[in-house]
Design brief:
Helix content is 70%, strand content 0%. By secondary structure, the protein is mainly alpha-helical. It has one domain. The radius of gyration is 14 Å and the shape is elongated. InterPro entries: DEATH-like_dom_sf (IPR011029).
Length: 53
């Protein structure tokens, strides 16, 4: 059974998903990295401290 909430919910979901759909998990992880980098760049440009994930 998957955890629906909590700090491990997303990682557990990705682990289950990766068994049958590894390319989907890879796409999610790549997009997450891309969005985190974009947030950091925007924070630097705007003079705001970047959030730590």
């Amino acid at each position: 059974m998957l955890t629906k909430r909590g700090p491990e919910a997303y990682d557990n979901f990705m682990d289950c998903l990766s068994e049958d759909y590894p390319w989907v998990v890879q796409n999610f992880r790549e997009k997450k990295v891309e969005l985190m980098e974009q947030d950091r760049c925007e924070a630097v440009c705007c003079g705001v401290h970047a959030r730590v994930y």
